[in-house]
Automatic annotation (TrEMBL):
Protein name: Uncharacterized protein
Claim: Translocase is one of the keywords in the record: no
Compositional bias segments (type: Basic and acidic residues): 189-199
Annotated spans, Disordered: 189-217
InterPro entries: GHMP_Kinase-Related (IPR052203)
Superkingdom assignment: Eukaryota
Entry keywords, A to Z: Kinase, Transferase
Organism placement in taxonomy: Eukaryota, Sar, Rhizaria, Retaria, Foraminifera
PANTHER family found in the cross-reference section: L-FUCOSE KINASE
Organism, scientific name: Reticulomyxa filosa
GO MF terms, alphabetically ordered: fucokinase activity
BP GO annotations: GDP-L-fucose salvage
Length: 707
């Protein structure tokens, strides 16, 4: 238009917070088009004089959803930009949390560029959580620097004291050693070899679309080399999440928990420095056995792990879950714990009935003078008594002693706790967990809740034992202190009233749920008739490694890579549709949504439907629980519960299937099916009869006569 002076500019915009038109001075501005950043001309991504490091810091400090890799791939990113980005990111990661200050969300000294005016102290209450993303971005900056400007990178590395630099990022020696190894390996590579590599983002995208087997093979090599490099950075990022967790846990314990000498072990600080007096716990009603019992949690949706610590603290989390009884166990809850006084013998008796090795088995151990020095060993994840031992320490019944003073566990701690009466008595603690192990049932959380409730009850700590939300917080802390990577909804699964809708608000302290329930139009008694639970018999892989479960979701969230972050955002929408489907008892829609949900999880974490039985001819064996059954009209859809990767599947039955029980014939055929490698993957497959538990964790006490 000749009558107007039109000035077209490229700008980053927040599409959620802006309007389509606004004014700047005497000019009216309108958006004429929106381009995803990956489609913008690379030469325009960095205007002359714009600091690349400030752009990256905006992504981190403001928690924006733009992927940093597109900036790193920009043609106008030069070697000097990469060096400046590394310096800025390192300084941000080295900042310390102002834990001694009272802080609230949004009250900090950072400007919008991430510049802090308090030196090495930062008042952002989410500092540790934002540093997680900064650590991953730092890894990608270094990797891309080495691939795009190998000679300049070698020069930069020549001036770097690798060990000192790594120590400024982490305090964990095991992670320091891993990262030093990877940085040294990158430094020692020849520059001409680096020039043939690709960046991580383009390698991942082209890997999925490449049709050439030789090309695909080389890209797999590049991808695996990148994964090996980035893994220690992810471990260090996870360390920051644990720092935030520990900080919030410390505040929680100081507020609610009786101070005891065991706090030195559980909280990681010297309890003698506390101004609060040490609490002395005592067994309430020694003539009684105290017992708790509960069902097990089944997660219908977590919006694909939105309840994990970092995500829920920064963005909020969602969940739909329920507590169930296993109807195959007559008159016996799947999880229970009890404690009692052992008469006339100074000892600790631990007994557990479990399915850790597949079949139900019972183990028992008695700790007395001859072996009490081994009681305070919690490191072995295969130790069936691990959670029982640590529960006694966590609650404060047993205190932490040096190996030379281990006998004080009996002579001081147990004697003081039991108290009264003639002679010396011991303490018994028993656990029963009949649910399938590593199945997605969050059985460890059910165990933690029962152990803590029975011990807090018998110790007279009623304000924790009788508060379901606070008890859940303690159970979450208990599990994570043992290295069990549980989410908040795992411990909230045992809350009463059947099927629950849980919402976790973004917050700066310990995460707790806002709870709502389905209206009366939802027919709870019809759920088990339409939703079949099937134990695939294929245990989920451990999530301790990088390539499984929550760690892959953690990586997708921090990286914001579109092909894996988009499904995270889509999962929120699917979650809300799941609520609608259940509200209207629409099981046809529910089944379709389950398939969509699982498809998102596969994009976030390819291991969600992978197993050791996969092969080129049969493909993903775990999908045989769903795809053929949908195709043949047996089910409307389904998915695995929990973190997936095997375990328990939820199948939504069609009307015809419910009437003719055809599902059991089909599952029996699948149970006997042999793969192309002559294996029988589903040989341990079984249907799980269940009913919804509406009571939560039960408690009773009954007389156990001392003799």
């Amino acid at each position: 238009q000749q009558d107007f002076d039109v000035n077209i500019k490229l700008a980053y915009v927040d599409m959620l917070g802006m309007s389509h038109a606004w004014r700047e001075g005497d000019m009216e501005c309108v958006v004429i088009d929106v381009l995803p950043i990956e489609h913008v001309d690379n030469n325009a991504c960095l205007e002359k004089g714009l600091d690349a490091e400030k752009t990256l810091m905006r992504l981190i400090v403001q928690d924006l959803d733009e992927c940093h890799q597109f900036l790193l791939d920009s043609k106008c990113m030069q070697d000097c930009h990469f060096a400046a980005c590394i310096q800025q990111l390192t300084q941000y990661i080295q900042k310390q949390h102002a834990v001694t200050h009272v802080v609230t969300a949004g009250n900090n000294n950072d400007d919008d560029d991430g510049n802090n005016n308090s030196g090495d102290i930062d008042h952002d209450p989410h500092l540790f959580l934002k540093q997680e993303r900064a650590i991953l971005i730092l890894a990608d900056v270094i990797w891309t620097f080495s691939t795009r400007f190998p000679h300049s990178f070698q020069k930069w590395m020549g001036g770097l004291d690798i060990l000192s630099w790594v120590r400024s990022l982490s305090h964990e020696s095991r992670y320091i050693n891993l990262l030093v190894k990877e940085m040294t390996r990158l430094k020692d590579q020849q520059p001409q070899l680096n020039e043939h590599k690709e960046n991580a983002s383009s390698s991942a995208l082209s890997l999925s679309s490449s049709s050439s087997s030789s090309s695909s093979s080389s890209k797999i090599d590049w991808w695996m080399e990148y994964i090996e490099f980035v893994e220690p950075f992810l471990k260090i990022a996870n360390e920051r999440e644990l720092r935030d967790f520990d900080h919030c846990a410390k505040l929680l314990l100081e507020r609610y928990r009786p101070t005891s000498a065991s706090d030195a072990h559980v909280q990681g600080h010297d309890s003698s420095s506390s101004s609060r007096p040490l609490a002395t716990l005592s067994y309430q009603y020694p003539q009684y056995t105290h017992e708790t019992s509960s069902g097990m949690r089944v997660s219908i949706s977590s919006a694909n792990a939105s309840d994990n610590w970092t995500n829920s603290k920064l963005r909020g989390g969602l969940s739909i879950n329920m507590c169930i009884n296993l109807d195959s166990i007559i008159d016996t809850p799947p999880v229970s714990a009890k404690t009692y006084v052992v008469p006339n013998r100074l000892c600790i008796v631990l007994k557990t009935t479990h399915t850790m090795n597949g079949n139900v088995q019972t183990d028992e151990i008695v700790f007395d003078d001859s072996n009490i020095d081994s009681f305070l060993q919690f490191e072995d994840p295969n130790d069936v008594f691990r959670m029982l031992k640590y529960a006694l320490v966590f609650v404060g019944i047993v205190h932490v002693h040096t190996p030379a003073q281990a006998k004080r566990i009996l002579t001081d701690d147990i004697t003081s706790f039991i108290g009264g009466g003639e002679g010396s008595h011991g303490l018994g603690l028993e656990l029963v967990n009949l649910g399938p192990s590593r199945s997605g049932f969050a059985s460890s959380s059910a165990v933690a809740c029962n152990l803590l409730k029975v011990l807090y009850t018998c110790a007279g700590v009623a304000h924790i034992a009788n508060d379901n939300i606070l008890l859940g917080s303690m159970a979450l802390l208990f599990e994570n202190k043992l290295g069990l990577k549980s989410g908040r909804q795992d411990v909230d699964g045992l809350l009463p009233n059947g099927l629950k809708i849980l919402h976790y608000q973004s917050r700066t302290d310990f995460q707790v749920p806002d709870i709502s329930y389905f209206s009366s139009s939802f027919k709870l008694d019809q759920l088990s008739k339409n939703l079949l639970l099937v134990n695939s018999g294929i245990a989920r892989a451990s999530s301790l490694g990088l390539h499984r479960g929550l760690n892959m979701r953690f990586w997708a969230y921090l990286s914001r890579q579109p092909h894996r972050f988009k499904p995270i955002l889509q999962s929120y929408g699917i979650h809300h549709e799941l609520i609608k489907a259940l509200h209207f008892n629409n099981y046809i829609y529910l089944g379709k949504l389950f398939l969509d949900y699982m498809s998102c999880r596969e994009k976030i974490d390819p291991g969600a439907t992978q197993s050791i039985f996969d092969n080129p001819k049969d493909g993903k064996v775990l999908r045989r629980l769903f795809d053929p059954l949908v195709k043949n009209g047996i089910i409307h859809g389904g998915m695995f519960t929990g973190a997936m990767g095997g375990g328990v599947a939820m199948l939504v039955l069609t009307e015809n299937t419910k009437q003719n029980n055809q599902i059991y014939k089909v599952l029996e055929q699948l149970k006997q099916w042999k793969s192309d490698t002559n294996e029988v993957p589903f040989q341990r497959l079984s249907v799980i009869p269940y009913s919804v538990n509406i009571h939560g964790i039960g408690y009773r006490k009954y007389v156990s006569q001392l003799t």
